[in-house]
Amino acid sequence: xSRFITIKDIxxxxxxxxxxxxxxxxxxxxxxxETREKVxxxxxxxxxxxxxxxxxxxxxxxxxxAVILPFxxxxxxxxxxxxxxxxxxxxxxxxxxxxxxxxxxxxRAIIKNLAASNLDGLLVAISSDADACAHFQQVIDSxxxxxxxxxxxxxxxxxxxMQDDYNGAFDAVEHLIGxxxxxxxxxxxxxxxxxxxxxxxxxxxxxAKHGLPVNEEWIIHSGFSREDGEADALKLLKQKKRPDAxxxxxxxxxxxxxxxxxxxxxxIGAQMGIIGFTNDPASTIVSxxxxxxxxxxxxxxxxxxxxxxxxxxxxxxxxxxxILPGTLIERESTLR
Length: 336
Known about the structure:
single chain, Rossmann fold, 3 domains, 6-stranded parallel sheet, HTH_LacI, LacI/GalR-like_sensor, Transcriptional regulator, LacI family
């Protein structure tokens, strides 16, 4: 097995000291241009890659980024991770992935056990506990930057990257109204999350704009799974007054609702419309296909990582809040 090329190999090839090679690679002031160019050329020829565990001792940089997610098994977060990786790997950063399973207790345990000295920064989508932010503030106060994405805490001042939850929800409900649906229900996520509130507000404001009534019994909050969506839809069907359309907080819930309605003999679209939020690939496989708001998940991952690297390189970097628009995709589930 071939070994890694080190600065000793470069020094030996050029017949110069190891310390000179090290300073040349770090572009210090006391190495002349000609020597630095020779060192860089030889490093390239030998396919040298820096040992970040070693250089971190000098530069106080590990080139490790932690990513904390509620889940990794759904399309949205896997697309976010792909975007993060594209930026991180281009800049020679390693990704250390942690999964909370949407548990605030596990989230706090992960933060408690993080080897902060071996991390340059964190990218985080918080769990469903809206008040679970003090532990993140402690990390920031210790000098390790954090950028939040998708699920973000309102109380912490740092960079955040989100999809436009309010306008996405507004567009989804207005699409249903435009298709002739007037009794619209909303099956949302956990009430503690900021984007749950924003999507609910978009839903309510769209109804208000078109003079449609709000039935509080048609607003149900639960988890994000297909099973949650199915259970929510069954609750709606048991009510004396039934809605004629459902806006779901995400596609998994929408697909669960679609399955429940089909099992109950309700014709999707003709008798009850359904629209989701995400544009999960499964939305094109179910029958009928699911109308949805496409989230820019890959771009959210990229922008989040780019912002974190700015925080790392410039400690006084002013936090930015980035909101990316979604796109309405009309499919069969909202065809009357």
